[in-house]
Specification:
Number of domains: 2
Bound molecules: pyridoxal-5'-phosphate
CATH superfamily of the largest domain: Type I PLP-dependent aspartate aminotransferase-like (Major domain)
Strand order of the largest sheet: 2-9-8-7-6-3-4-5
CATH architecture of the largest domain: 3-Layer(aba) Sandwich
Largest sheet: 8 strands, mixed
Strand content: 5-15%
Distance between the termini: 55 Å
Order of helices and strands: HEHHEHEHEEHEHEEEHHHEEEHEEEH
């Protein structure tokens, strides 16, 4: 049977996991493999006991039924309370709970994209923004962040590009910001966010801020939410339990859509309908995340311990990477990724894909190539493992670069 597939499955890929089959094969053949490709905190920091207890309690009390499609009321209440920290006064209907930020991305692209519409991303971007957009027939439009300026957004060229597009820019359905940023670890300053709000306002573009790492901030940086600066400009904030509440496998995310404008109202309605189509989310997970947010004392303890450990690991890895004469490294202050740039002119690699594939085969260290993030000369390290593992792996990567330097 031909012609049954209307959407091209080629877009439905995950480049962060691309080398997994090779890693498994090497591992089966007895090679020591160190995986630095995936940002999965519970693999290194057990989900806090009080959250697990809440999950088990929900199961034991029989909470195994369908729950409110747009989000369990207890969880929605907890999210509303959480956003007071950013001086946001939300209504319960401003919150839609989803199966991770991943499902929120499906909802957003489904609601907004018609064939040929554009989603504006800033490179380097989280790779999974692309398939969600393309599955719905959308096309990525890419602005740039500049590594040499500590990953500042190149707002001048972005504004020029938008101006040049003229009426064509009406097909730009959103601009996506990731803050704290994956893959660079950048935490956006308030004035940088204000500049992006201004661009969005001038061009009539909806802003989306993926803030899934908003509590994983260190080295003295302070996080500002888009909600604190967007004012009347239509915006959506994405967040969830995966990283801040150390529970990627619970699959709980949420969208906050606070505006009173027509776009926000219509998005809330659409998202609510999409939520009804899939009936319910995992009910015990939602009880557990509601408790995770409500029990501020336990959460404060857990998150401060995790962030302190993460900052030590990231800072250690950055120092080790700086021993490598063939890469440049910027300092992350949020999330747990490092995004060094390879000095391709001095190295024998054909690009970051060649680099990460050969690095895995020869050293057993699994990295993610920058080509996946729209920055072809970089690579990403998820610096979650303990310092000893990072030391072992980065020593290997550094030796591998030296071995492959052009003479
Ligand atoms: C920036 C960003 N957004 C979204 C996700 C996925 O989130 P979730 O587990 O809530 O689907 C990730 C996961 O690494 C991420 O880094």
């Amino acid at each position: 049977m031909t012609g049954i597939f209307s959407k091209k499955s080629v877009y439905a890929q995950n480049q962060i996991l691309e080398l997994d089959p090779l890693a498994e094969k090497l591992s089966r053949n007895g090679k020591k493999v160190v995986k630095l490709n995936r940002g999965d905190p519970p693999k290194f920091f057990p989900t806090p006991k009080y959250i697990i207890d809440a999950y088990v309690k929900a199961l034991r009390s029989g909470a195994t039924y369908y729950s409110r499609a747009q989000g369990l009321p207890e969880l929605v209440e907890a999210v509303v309370a959480r956003y007071k920290r950013y001086s946001m006064d939300l209504d319960k209907d401003d919150v839609i709970v989803t199966a991770g930020v991943s499902e929120a991305l499906l909802f957003i692209n489904n609601a907004l994209m018609n064939k040929g519409d554009k989603g504006l991303l800033l490179a380097p971007y989280y790779p999974q923004y692309i398939p969600r957009l393309m599955i719905e027939g959308g096309v990525p439009l890419v602005g740039n962040m500049i590594m040499e300026r500590d990953w500042e957004v190149d707002t001048d060229s972005l504004s020029r590009k938008l101006k040049k597009m003229g009426h064509g820019r009406q097909r730009i359905k959103y601009m996506m910001i990731t803050n704290p940023h994956n893959p660079t670890g950048k935490v956006f300053e308030r004035n940088a966010l204000e500049d992006l709000v201004e661009i969005a306002n001038d061009n009539g573009i909806l802003l989306i801020s993926d803030e899934i790492y908003d509590e994983i901030v260190y080295n003295g940086k302070k996080f500002t939410s888009l909600g604190q600066v967007a004012g009347d400009v239509p915006h959506i904030i994405l967040n969830g339990s995966s990283k801040n509440f150390d529970s990627t496998g619970f699959r709980i995310g949420f969208m906050v859509i606070p505006g009173e404008d027509k776009v926000s109202q219509s998005l809330r309605e659409k998202f609510s309908q999409y939520a009804l189509v899939r009936l319910s989310l995992n009910t015990p997970s939602q009880f557990a995340v509601a408790e995770a947010m409500k029990n501020k004392k336990e959460h404060e303890k857990a998150i401060s311990q995790m962030v302190s450990a993460i900052s030590k690991r990231v800072n250690f890895a950055v120092e080790k990477l700086r021993e490598n004469p063939y890469i440049t490294v910027t300092q992350p202050n949020g999330a747990f990724y490092i995004f060094p740039k390879l000095d391709m002119k001095s190295l024998k690699f054909k690009g970051s894909k060649d680099f990460v594939t050969r690095a895995l085969m020869e050293t057993g260290v699994q990295l993610t190539g920058g080509y996946s993030f729209g920055s072809p000369d970089n690579f990403r390290i998820a610096a979650l493992p303990p310092v000893e593992t990072l030391e072992y792996a980065i020593d290997k990567v550094n030796e591998f670069c030296i071995k492959n330097a052009k003479k």
